[in-house]
Batch of 2 targets.
Target 1
Amino acid sequence: MTHSPVHSAGNSPIKTALQAGKTYAWCACGRSMKQPFCDGSHQGTGIDPVIFTAEVEGDVWLCLCKKTNTAPTCDGSHKK
């Protein structure tokens, strides 16, 4: 299945406070106006958000370049 191009939402990760046990939808398409989270802008692109539940309370670095291999967290791909 083909999908629309993925857009970068930034050139570095964003520090984000997560609540343990809460479920989040990380934007994988780069189109959301609520980065790093999904706002439904992916509709019709063939790209789905990454749904995850935070295992611990605290800050994490979530990817904005959308090139990470460890979605939703940053793996340094924006530096390549």
Target 2
Amino acid sequence: MKQLIDYPFEIKPLSNEDGGGFLISYPDFAECISDGETVGEAIANGADALQATIAALKANKLPVPQPGSGGVASGKFVARVPKTVHAQLTMRAKSEGVSLNALVLTFIAQGLGASRRSVSS
């Protein structure tokens, strides 16, 4: 049986602009974060948030990730790029007759392949 203590977490200090204190997040649960004035308070608040997240997943009959699994990748993410890059990508996609999404996915796949080849060389 999974216990809350088995789930890895990350703690990062928050800037004064963000209110100070500490932010806790759980790599296995992208949506589960909390904070606290001290590290101890952040950990306690994080445990409460994690317990509520797991309860919500179970209540909705959704899978609960195993500790250390890194969570479930949805296959979707948002990336902000400069307007000029967005315009260039849009024009390139149009000229190649593909969607912007397909073009960017191709570039990412090519980049991952190139980085994998350079690591194994």
